[in-house]
Specification:
2 copies of one chain form a homodimer. Chain A contains 20 helices and 13 strands. Chain A has 551 residues and is of the alpha/beta class. In chain A, helix 5 links the parallel strand 6 and strand 7. Chains A and B meet through helix 6, helix 8, helix 9, helix 11 and helix 14 of A and helix 6, helix 8, helix 9, helix 11 and helix 14 of B.
Chain lengths: 551, 551
């Protein structure tokens, strides 16, 4: 059962002109408020009703004027600032014109299918806040529709900026419909999975027709980005044979098998133009899949991976000719020292199209803790320029994540993304840290909790040892106890210093010089004693004191 | 209750000459074995008996020959390769001479008090494996002796290389005695805490006499390193006044208050030579405390922090004159982009003495998850040269860690440390990753679990969705289900490729060229159609299909 969120943090829709932009408004103990970026949609709505369709009038207007390429990039290149651009500009604290320019040059995307009117637009680009994607979806083995909608709501509650529905099981269409109608964030998919279901799982039977039918179906439902594994070419497959972990992308392995079985070029590559036709009609963005990403640190930055990146660079430019928005998927498993090269190459080869990476995991030895192993890599790769991070849950490599896993993965990645925002000195990013630290130093426990990523857990942890209500204002916690609280003593220090107006530095220097002089005299005295004693001193060796006899 | 460790991983004492060096021996499903670095001591011993005192004869020999400076650095500088150096050389896969040389030049330390004969020696230095320290200790508010010994055993079970006993409560001496007699790893302390207890918590009443008495007492018990906050000078206190979080080190705040109250220089600084006399008699290493470390990202890399570092550099050289081993404590809270400067300055100012950092946390907004926020910073700072990481638990800033917190903190930090070992390309570090990844690719689930940092959790997570014994050899997991398993498909790809010996690359290129030609022809045809149609195409807009009516 969901514990009610603390009342001190609530959704608020800022009405700015014709736009309603959601924020989480936190009320601090002095009555002041601060506003945080919010991914969670309107709450308290029956999933059968779906979210309000606030984008509908914007899209109707574009339809009415006879548009046939609905992509945000198309508008941006035509000099138009859309409602979606103004919306994200408010969320990010940037100017609408800057947003338009970044989209026009392909350096950022707003994934916003015109068939997803429930969407609260967001932007993915390295000059904006680092975003986090959460994967959900059922498999043959587990999960239900209800569970997937709940996972969606749960993921956005904890800060998912986009959600990928990776369902491969039954009721794939219906599951997606429920997810879309209840999602305030863009939904991404890998259409190949459903196409494979349609040919009963026989890879060899895949073909462009069933694929085109699938993307038309999914685009019509409102999916905002498709992972397309068009970069796995027939001739790149041999490059993976000697790897420790071969091909670890599902889509990549499927296309490699298809290519090899038919001895034909990847049909996603050869029919890329046909796919583009669908993308622009709905404004579905490409998420060009890294089908040959490394699945172990041993395979990082190898020939297969970088060969595919070159192909993705070529495809980026082809998509851009249609004004279709593009981002590029990245690894995977990469040791720390090989991370920067991934971003540098991607930015160069793909002409600064946004990078969207899965982790990367910086070691392979942490099954059960891969959210941590990958959050480390994620923070570093985002610092270097990755625009969106795909989260990894503690169940990675082991099983399908449940609700708790989704939350654990999300929070680890919000930490990584925010760490990168700080490192990139994103305007305003540090404000929340400063507010929280100030609350911490001043023993405003409830403010500290409310400003954290997970107020409930912070309060629970605090209360495990000091549950009394009075402890919420106590000037110590159970970690150090009252006598040893550095914050309390430090406040005493500040008071002492203030009581003398300023500490007289000259006096401090005097004290130091005096002490040093005394110390030197002491040493000189010791040296004399040592010499007088003949240069050998008896050093009493204390007997070890044992409370027990040990063998 | 502790679940028994899987039998496939067991302690084994390698007998090499006169030394017994512990390893964790993992038996894989093909019967082969691999040996991992092991911090956990001999198990199954009653805490009242304490661990075997294997170092005792080594120390007796040194006493018998009339040594009065027992420090490993003193031996190293005299050209002696001690048993401790040979021991760590085996553990690290380095030559004893290299170990001796690193210690002689102060670039590494072996914290090994001669009164701690139960110790299994380990080395801290940036040319060796990155180490992790776990803090335990009771406070006035909580905890008992039993709980602390159990925490010690628990911490070393999960890989703690050293343990700091930060007790501040009652029975401080007795708690420490129990910990030491049962510890296979070096124990560190902050003697100032006990000294403050001796003056009933009144900071102003502290003095060098009570401090000297305390360090003599603790050294005699066998503590291997002391955090000494000798770098907090009277004139540095004003530098902290305008900080967001003032002074957050307990020792730092105590000494700052003392200095300010008395308007005298820090007695740990003025009596540094007296302290040195004790250190060398027992071989206690200095861990020069960073009393002015930043407690928030806002305060990182500020004047107070770097002023203190300069003082620590001076003290390092003074300690080295006595051949006393030294490491330097570091922050704290530091955003990612300010981390490298911390290491670079420390290495320069402190002449490459090993750096020992607490995290750092890369953001302040994650109370309840600070083990993750800090593991990110820890991995990066270790990659840049930090030799030992002090772990942070999920309870940081909120309360005293319990058993589960100790484990969570330890594993997050083993990941960070290992990630840095990989990044530094420490010889042999990647072997475990490769073995695990190979097992993963080949569906040897039990081998994958056994090679991971937490075999039990990995198995539990796997079994939550596929508990049947058969699933332990199944060629899929619940994440993707059987049809979509990339590993399985990738193995098919390898078989396909192998069946043709090598994929004929010429043929692949031919297929690609043919496909490209066809695609180009198709595009040319489309372009013709488009032009013929007058340059405007009707794009049918599909009606959104809704499974529900939304407002």
């Amino acid at each position: 059962m969901r514990k009610p969120a603390p009342q001190r943090a609530q959704r608020n829709d800022l009405e700015i002109g014709d736009l309603k932009v959601p924020v989480t408004q936190v009320t601090l103990s002095d009555g002041s408020t601060t506003q945080l970026y919010r991914t969670e949609g309107p709450t308290g709505i029956d999933p059968r009703d779906g979210l309000p369709t606030r984008r509908a009038p914007w899209i109707e207007r574009r339809r009415a004027r006879g548009d046939h390429n609905f992509s945000q990039m198309h508008c941006a290149r035509n000099g138009e600032i859309t409602e979606e651009m103004r919306f994200v500009a408010i969320r990010e604290g940037m100017s609408p014109e800057f947003v338009r320019d970044e989209i026009a040059r392909g350096r950022a995307i707003i994934p916003a299918n015109i068939e997803h009117p429930e969407l609260e637009p967001m932007i993915i680009g390295r000059n904006f806040l680092v975003k986090v994607n959460a994967n959900i979806g059922n498999s043959k083995v587990l999960s239900s529709i209800d569970a997937e909608v709940e996972k969606l709501q749960w993921a956005v509650r904890w800060g998912a900026d986009t959600v990928m529905d990776l369902s491969t099981g039954d009721q794939i269409h219906e599951t997606r419909e429920w997810i879309l109608r209840n999602s305030p964030v863009p939904i991404g998919t890998v259409p190949l999975y459903q196409a494979l279901e349609k040919v009963r799982g026989v890879v060899e039977d895949l073909n462009i027709d069933v694929y085109m039918e699938t993307i038309e179906e999914q685009a019509k439902q409102g999916v905002s980005y498709f992972t397309v594994h068009a970069g796995v070419l027939l001739r790149s497959v041999p490059l993976t044979i000697d790897r420790v972990t071969g091909i670890v992308s599902r889509g990549g392995s499927i296309m490699a098998k298809w290519c090899l079985s038919h001895h034909k070029e990847n049909f996603l590559y050869t029919h890329f133009e046909d796919i583009c036709d669908v993308m622009k009609r709905y404004d579905v963005a490409f998420s060009l899949g890294d089908g040959l990403r490394p699945g172990s640190v041993a395979d990082a930055n190898d020939a297969a991976q970088f060969f595919e990146l070159e192909v993705l660079g070529e495809l980026t430019e082809r998509a851009w000719k249609h004004d279709i928005q593009v981002m590029i998927e990245g690894p995977g498993h990469v040791p720390l020292h090989k991370i920067p090269e991934n971003v540098e190459r991607q930015l160069e080869v793909c002409k600064e199209a946004p990078f969207y990476t899965l982790g990367p995991l910086v070691t392979d030895i942490a099954p059960g803790y891969d959210h941590i192993a990958s959050a480390i890599g994620a923070a570093m790769i985002a610092q270097h320029g990755t625009a969106m991070l795909c989260y990894v849950t503690p169940k990675e490599h082991l099983g399908l994540p449940d609700r708790d896993d989704v939350k654990e993965g999300m929070i680890a990645y919000k930490i990584a993304a925010h760490a990168a925002d700080l490192a990139k000195q994103h305007p305003g990013a540090q404000e929340r840290d400063d507010l929280l630290s100030k609350a911490r130093f001043e023993f405003r426990w409830r403010d500290q909790f409310a400003l954290g990523l997970d107020p409930e857990r912070a309060e629970d942890y605090h209360d495990q040892t000091l549950p009394a209500e009075g402890a919420k204002t106590a000037h110590f916690c159970s970690m150090c106890g009252p006598a040893f609280c550095a914050y309390r003593i430090s406040q005493d220090v500040n008071k002492l210093a203030a009581s003398e107006k300023l500490i007289p530095l000259g006096k401090a220097q005097q004290a130091h010089d005096q002490a040093t002089l005394e110390a030197e005299e002491g040493m000189a005295q010791k040296a004399r004693e040592f010499r007088d004693g003949g240069g050998e001193v008896y050093v009493p060796i204390a007997e070890p004191m044992r409370s027990n006899s040990s063998s």
